[in-house]
Automatic annotation (TrEMBL):
GO terms for molecular function: hydrolase activity. It comes from Reticulibacter mediterranei. This is Nudix hydrolase domain-containing protein. InterPro entries: Nudix_hydrolase (IPR020476), NUDIX_hydrolase-like_dom_sf (IPR015797), NUDIX_hydrolase_CS (IPR020084), NUDIX_hydrolase_dom (IPR000086). Its cofactor is Mg(2+). The lineage of its organism: Bacteria, Bacillati, Chloroflexota, Ktedonobacteria, Ktedonobacterales. Residues 1-128 form the Nudix hydrolase domain. The keyword Hydrolase applies. Belongs to the Nudix hydrolase family. Pfam families: NUDIX. Keywords: Hydrolase.
């Protein structure tokens, strides 16, 4: 299982981070540890990766991602973590060994560089945010 944190800036752009160990970009987040809930994972990973405390991320849904290429199957949870102010963005501190940079980008620029597995589900997560609902997907398709 894994959890992703979706943030926006004041212009509505989405926050992506560039892992040092992958060719594509991701949302902040990571793998769920033993005896840890996906929500707790989201909170922990955001603190570790960005240095930001988020008290109450909002669940957007989940996506069952089947095995593909070198990646194993996964249950991916997505959480909306709010809009970051300019001061919060300026305070972001990335762990240099894990993440090389971050960017806020509009959706049309996010989709080509985001992990292919996350790209399929992202529009559905954003629709869930806009409609105040939850979404369940399998490989990016609503079930």
């Amino acid at each position: 299982m894994a959890a992703s944190a979706i943030f926006r800036n004041e212009k509505g752009n989405l926050l992506l981070v560039k892992p040092t160990y992958r060719t594509y970009w991701l949302f902040p987040g990571g793998s769920v540890e033993d005896n840890e809930s996906p929500r707790t994972t989201c909170i922990r990973e955001v603190k570790e990766e960005l240095g930001i405390d988020i008290p109450s991320p909002r669940s957007l849904g989940m996506d069952y991602l089947s095995e593909e290429n070198e990646e194993t199957e996964c249950l991916q949870f997505a959480f909306y973590c709010g809009t970051l102010s300019a001061a919060q963005i300026a305070a972001i501190k990335l762990p240099a060994r894990e993440l090389s940079e971050f960017r806020f980008l509009p959706l049309d620029e996010v989709l080509p560089i985001l992990s292919p597995k996350l790209t399929r589900g992202l529009p559905h997560y954003l629709a869930a945010l806009d409609n105040d609902t939850l979404v369940y997907m399998e490989d990016g398709e609503i079930m």
